[in-house]
Amino acid sequence: MGKNNKLYLIFSTDAKTAAFITTTVCLLVTIVSHTFLNATDLFTLQVLSLVFYILLPAINHIRMFFAIRRHNSQMVHQVGAQQLSVILRREKKVAADMVIVVVVLVACLGPILGINMILHLGYLEIHARLYPWAFTMMYLNSSINPLLYLTRNRELASALRSVVVSGCPCC
């Protein structure tokens, strides 16, 4: 996708662009929802927002996987059989990592979506009991992702360890 493509901004893997889009959408959703929408429209907007926040990272992870596969297929002609098996092992690991991240994302954002549906159906007592848990699960995803990356990537863990040790005056 070229930078001239309008969908590039939405499906960009650039961290700054993704952070800007997420912040802008959150701000706009908050302003619009509290100013102009009735309860049904607010619920619909919340569902669409959560689906968007689940789909966008999933689509970006799939795009990254295809970019890695494209790169690996270009490398096949330039490497030997032994290196090819290493490349295929890495590709499988990347695919597994991406599946794990997307499953954890859905597991953490799914409860808040379900709880909001329960509220819309009129089950106020169930909503009141489960909402704090679902809300916590939504934010827990931000804490789980770094741990996932550190446990699945030895180089990243090693780099983090060296940064922490170099910044620690006692070591």
- Could you tell me how far the N terminus lies from the C terminus, measured between alpha carbons in angstroms? 46 Å
Question: Count of DSSP helices?
Answer: 6
Low-confidence stretches: none
Profile the largest sheet: none
Query: Order of helices and strands, N to C?
Result: HHHHHH
What is the 3D shape?
elongated
Radius of gyration using CA atoms only = 21 Å
Class from helix and strand fractions? mainly alpha
Helix amount, in percent? over 70%
Give the percentage of residues in beta strands: under 5%
Rounded mean pLDDT is 78
- Report the strand count: 0
Describe the protein:
The structure is a single chain. By secondary structure, the chain is an all-alpha fold. It is 85% helix and 0% strand. The chain contains six helices and no strands. Helix 2 packs antiparallel against helix 3, helix 3 packs antiparallel against helix 4 and helix 4 runs antiparallel to helix 5. The relative contact order is 0.07. The mean pLDDT is 78.
